[in-house]
Hints:
The chain is mainly alpha-helical. The protein has 2 domains: about 1-50; about 50-130. The chain is extended and about 65 Å long. It is about 70% helix and about 0% strand.
Amino acid sequence: xxxxxxxxxxxxxxxxxxxxxxxxxxxxxxxxxxxxxxxxxxxxxxxxxxxxxxxxxxxxxxxxxxxxxxxxxxxxxxxxxxxxxxxxxxxxxxxxxxxxxxxxxxxxxxxxxxxxxxxxxxxxxxxxxxxxxxxxxxxxx
Length: 141
């Protein structure tokens, strides 16, 4: 019965509403948080210039997600913290060369840490976290 084309069509139509609602809620949530970010951004910088909407800003957000790892909820936040700290400390020591250092870190993350920092931290957390109701954590040796 499932091999009939009409059965596949009926199944697709049955799940269309739930997928449509799910996409609508996801997009609405995304738009809401983008608006909140814009509201918080305006008083912080007190000016909006075209460079804020440029390729560099979009690329830095993508780097944050890639370095932190898109597979976890906290991975992009870790990537953002890492990039901001790296930019700050690298610009202290080499003010004009910090993008080069950021590029080297990005290449290392892409080559050797395919999941980003978030995946490795979640694996580490599973090792450290108490298992089977024990309140004692395991040794890391």
